[in-house]
Amino acid sequence: MPGEVLSQSEIDALLSALSTGEMDADQLKKEQSERKIKTYDFKRALRFSKDQIRSITRIHENFARLLTTYFSAQLRTYVQISVTSTDQIPYEEFISSIPKMTILNVFDVPPLDGKLLIEVNPNIAYALMDRMMGGKGSSLNKVENLTEIETKIMSNTFSKAFLLLKEAWSNVIDIEPSYADFEVNPQFLQMVSPNETVVVISLNATIGEASGMINICIPHVALEAIMPKLSVRYWIESDVKNREPEEIERLTKNIEMASIPVVCELGSTDISIEDFLDLSIGDVIELDQGIHEPMQIKVGEIPKFTGQPGKVHKKMAVQILDFVKGEEEYE
Fold first, then answer.
1. What are the DSSP calls for 199-261, one per residue?
2. In this structure, what are the phi and psi dihedrals at residue 142, rounded to the nearest 5 degrees?
3. 232-273 confidence digits (pLDDT tens)
4. Which domain, by its residues, includes 184?
5. N- to C-terminal Cα distance for the chain?
6. Residue 315 maps to which CATH number?
7. Is residue 180 part of a domain?
8. What CATH number did the domain enclosing 208 receive?
9. Within a domain: residue 278?
10. What value does the mean pLDDT of the chain take?
11. pTM value?
């Protein structure tokens, strides 16, 4: 079999089985050919590689963190949003999997072609709206009876929140999300053909005591132009290419001009709280460091040098004697 190496004893046993009739050569060939056949469903075409799916997942994990921060500040309550899965399925299958009445937000994302659909479970949508109106964040499901005011509040809230997609996608492409449509019945929304492959990123959202799913549906046609950019290799190469000499020089100068504290410690000691409370002006504290021992010089909080005290032009100074053992020496 391909990829396997048989020992001499196994080869002898196989030849013996074939010669005695215990194993049929035609049957063996048939089994091998059957194992090479792999079922492929043309209605469920896989347009994205595993590497690209991982990249899309990573982008929306960042988006979930941005949403969590945004809603936490707006609602002033417990909010937790995280990615649970990323799948590529036909658009028809996605529409069939969501509730018959739900909150659907459609976005244009130029320069990408096509539209992006974000479905918010009514439990989350109502809890969010109730909290914004001054309530406790109670959940309610009456999508079919949405008033004009409720529709306006929800559409405004989600249009502002989901603009964070621009920041989440900034490492791949600069998009300009704009709110295009608000719908409650998925049957009235036909963005692409039923068999078109879409990527569905499912986010689990918890707002106060309410919980539900937020599903982001991105058609393949929208991502087709940037498919090469969704590979990890492209990201690594882009990071290397973007490091221009001018940028490196500017960063180097900024680091060189950064201010950090340098402290020379005369010594230390341990005293009881009682003695500390009884200290007064003129008291002397004996340190555990001799006057002839080198002092420790810290850069930030890290010991870097040893030195000795002195004076330069009638001003107190410290002369560096050596590097602290174990620390890297810099010229």
1. EEEEEEEEETTEEEEEEEEEEHHHHGGGGGGGSHHHHHHHHHHT--HHHHHHHHHHHHT----
2. -145, 55
3. 666 555 555 555 677 778 888 888 888 888 888 888 888 889
4. 50-241
5. 62
6. 2.30.330.10
7. yes
8. 3.40.1550.10
9. no
10. 81
11. 0.59
